[in-house]
């Protein structure tokens, strides 16, 4: 049996009541980690926690808070205490056209998809260094490699986080503390369903037809499954991945075609 070496480790997973965050939480729970789950919606978070306890038997704590605010981060960190594993995750800003975005739109996007992760890293990294173990995974987006024009707010904010991580990850590798980014393409989540419905409406076609087109255009001929993403996160967080430092791991079924 494959042992990821993180049984008993405490993992803090942000935005984990559903979608990719939930997938990461489930995979880490199956590896024996103790979980601290976070999301804004208390009821959805409670349901997610109960579901994971039934599935995995893992020790799970839940804290409902908006991780993108200082107050929310303080509440989560007070509940979690020190963490061996941190999975940073937050929803993306709305799509649109750059000529319509004001300064406040950019500030919100940067707070949500760049500064929040940086503040969380800052809060946990000293204890990781002291314990000679730490795994930090930032869920960003495939758009940092292949920008999506209508998601410019996300492109910019997440690319800023990518640059920041590249600048600090090497500094902490000597302490067995790794920081890496996990870049999702199109996965079967509520977010992709919303995007499909919105785009289908704009194009005047049925959502099922647009989904079929997206699947056909993907080299894998499908969209990704949440469990696949979760497994990748658990691997990056494993005790055996200490040589993986400052990388951007893209999971998109092969859509982005590049040698690097």
Account of the 3D structure:
The chain is α/β, with parallel strands linked by helices and 260 residues long. It has two domains: 10-186 and 225-251, Rossmann fold, CATH 3.40.50.720; 188-223, no CATH class. It has helices at residues 19-30, 42-56, 70-80, 103-131, 152-172, 190-203, 207-217, 226-237; strands at residues 10-13, 34-39, 60-64, 85-88, 134-139, 177-184, 248-251. The chain has a seven-stranded parallel beta sheet, sandwiched between helices. Helix 4 (103-131) links the parallel strand 4 and strand 5 (134-139). Helix 1 crosses helix 8 (226-237), helix 4 runs parallel beside helix 5 and helix 6 (190-203) crosses helix 7 (207-217). The chain starts with 9 loop residues before the first strand and ends in a 9-residue tail after the last strand. The model has no long low-confidence stretch (mean pLDDT 95).
CATH topology of the largest domain: Rossmann fold
Helix share, percent: 40-55%
- C-alpha Rg (nearest Å): 18 Å
Whole-number tally of structural domains? 2
In the predicted model, the low-confidence regions spanning at least 5 consecutive residues are none
For the largest beta-sheet, the strand count, sense and barrel status come to: 7 strands, parallel
Query: So what's the overall shape?
Result: globular
Written as H for each helix and E for each strand, in order along the chain, the element string is EHEHEHEHEHEHHHE
Structural class: alpha/beta
Mean pLDDT: 95
Return the CATH class of the largest domain: Alpha Beta
Task: Write the CATH architecture name of the largest domain.
Answer: 3-Layer(aba) Sandwich
Work out the strand percent.
Answer: 5-15%
CATH homolog superfamily of the largest domain: NAD(P)-binding Rossmann-like Domain
Note the gap between the termini: 32 Å
Total strands: 7
What count of helical segments does DSSP give? 8
């Amino acid at each position: 049996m494959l042992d990821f070496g993180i049984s008993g480790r405490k993992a803090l997973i942000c935005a984990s009541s559903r979608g990719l965050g939930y997938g990461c939480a489930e995979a880490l729970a199956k590896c024996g980690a103790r979980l601290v789950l976070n999301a804004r919606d208390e009821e959805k978070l409670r349901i997610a926690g109960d579901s994971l306890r039934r599935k995995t038997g893992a020790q799970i704590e839940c804290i409902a808070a908006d991780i993108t605010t200082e107050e929310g981060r303080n509440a989560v960190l007070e509940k979690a205490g020190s963490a061996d594993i941190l999975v940073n995750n937050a929803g993306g800003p709305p799509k649109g056209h750059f000529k319509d975005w004001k300064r406040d739109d950019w500030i919100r996007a940067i707070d949500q998809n760049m500064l929040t992760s940086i503040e969380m890293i800052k809060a946990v990294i000293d204890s990781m260094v002291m314990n000679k173990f730490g795994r930090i995974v930032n869920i960003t987006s495939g758009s940092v490699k292949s920008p999506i024009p209508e998601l410019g707010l996300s492109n910019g904010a997440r690319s800023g986080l990518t640059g920041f991580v590249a600048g600090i990850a090497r500094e902490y590798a000597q302490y067995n503390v790794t920081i890496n980014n996990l870049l999702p393409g199109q996965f079967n989540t509520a977010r992709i369903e919303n995007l499909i419905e919105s785009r289908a409406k704009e194009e005047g076609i049925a959502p099922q037809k647009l989904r079929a087109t997206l699947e056909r255009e993907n080299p894998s001929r499908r969209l990704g499954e949440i469990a696949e993403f979760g497994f990748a996160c658990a691997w990056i967080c494993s005790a055996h991945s200490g040589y993986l430092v400052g990388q951007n791991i893209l999971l998109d079924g092969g859509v982005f075609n590049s040698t690097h």
